Amino acid sequence: MAIPATMRAMVLEAPRQPLRETQLPAPQPAAQQVLIQVHACGVCRTDLHIVDGELSEPKLPLILGHEIVGTVVALGDGVRRFRLGDRVGVPWLGYTCGECRYCRKDQENLCERAGFTGYTLDGGYAEYTVAYEQYCFHLPAAYPNAAAAPLLCAGLIGYRTYRLSGDRVEHLGIYGFGAAAHIIAQVAVHQGKRVYAFTKPGDTQGQDFARRLGAAWAGDSGTLPPVELDAAMIFAPVGSLVVEALRATAKGGVVVSGGIHMSDIPAFPYRLLWEERVIRSVANLTRRDGEEFLAIAPQVPVETTVTRFPLEHANLALQTLRAGELEGAAVLIMPSDRDVQ
Ligand SMILES: [Zn+2]
Ligand SMILES: [Zn+2]
Question: What strands, in cross-sheet order, belong to the sheet with 62-63?
Fold first, then answer.
């Protein structure tokens, strides 16, 4: 297909400013890269942390967006895994060096020279983007473009968080019931776990949403669940939830924080940690996490709840996420998706 010389993009020029709608030259794929016509791109809480300057080393100007669904429309030299016309998903992990101490230990999520989509590499709030083919995924056919987008970060990071919560978990707490939680709760229920969902106090709508997705119990954060948790996952950027989750967790239990940024964790008495409770974080993802999760999602099947915004309403989508007014995930829809849905 003919690729236009320019494209529309929503660009972050400096932190703490709204994104600006801009015409830019369409990118060209370098060696090992594919050029992608973007159909849909999810909006993630990490995007808010970048806009707010809480993640302090973005490339600037920057095109945000690391939950990209599109079609391969041109190939750089040496591309082998994808062909023209393939549907492709692009996640947060956009590049790793393959050589540093972490890459050599099978911990590419911790790579010292990693590139991150929509942070240190341009992302998907645009009509076109380029990505290194080794970090792109083939997507399960069952998902339309918009429905597939949240799988690529909310799903993948949610899955890594879930995996690190341990495999002998019966009672699993989830603090913060947004995009990641609504996806991974379905996987947990499918795998026979009992899910306890904690929302902002008084968010009965969020609690109903959690119960509809199979949660055994849903209530206000700050209250204790009816049973002690074997593990807890935290998806809200609120440090005090770490203490609340410890308080709700049984001996030997794990509290895993899935977010990239969190407010300070308040001091707490050692007895809450004693008896071999563990606090840990999740950073980024590995390609293995992605392959595993994208194989599991259609088996469950995970159903994503999305609110669509046109590309030019990206600022509104970010505001809506910030206000906590979304059920599920926000997704930007490009003009190229209109004939699909
Ligand atoms: Zn994300
Ligand atoms: Zn590395």
Answer: 20-25, 6-12, 62-63
The residue ranges of the chain whose pLDDT is under 70 are 338-341
Q: Which residues contact 141 (CB under 8 A, 6 or more apart)?
A: none
What is the per-residue pLDDT across 196-207, written as a single tens digit (0 to 9) for each? Answer: 999 999 999 999
95 Cα–ligand 1 center, Å: 16
Residue 18 near residue 50 (C-beta atoms within 8 A): no
pLDDT attached to residue 338: 61
Cα–Cα dist 40/321, whole Å: 17
* Residues shown for the chain: 341
Beta bridge partners, 231, equal: 172, 254
Q: Which ligand is nearest to the CA of 65?
A: 1
Q: What are phi and psi of 40, to 5 degrees?
A: -150, 150
C-alpha closest to that of 338 among 144, 88, 153, 130: 144
CA-to-CA distance for 140 and 138, rounded, in angstroms?
7
3-state secondary structure of 116: strand
Which residues lie at CB < 5 A from ion ligand 2?
A: 96-97, 100, 103, 111
In this prediction, residue 27 carries a pLDDT of 97
In the chain, the amino acid numbered 278 is V
Other C-beta atoms lying within 10 Å of the C-beta of residue 287:
17
Q: What is the pLDDT of residue 75?
A: 98
CA of 104 to the centre of ligand 2 (A): 7
pTM for this model (two decimals): 0.94
Q: Which two tokens stand for residue 66?
A: 């690391």
Q: Is 238 exposed, middle or buried (0-12, 13-18, 19+ CB in 10 A)?
A: middle
Calculate how far, in angstroms, residue 9's C-alpha sits from the geometric centre of ligand 2. 30
Q: Which amino acid is at 318?
A: L
Give 301's Cβ-side CA count (13 Å radius): 10
* Cα–Cα distance for residue pair 27/127, rounded to 1 Å: 10
Q: Domains of the chain, with CATH numbers?
A: 6-150+305-337 (3.90.180.10), 156-281 (3.40.50.720)
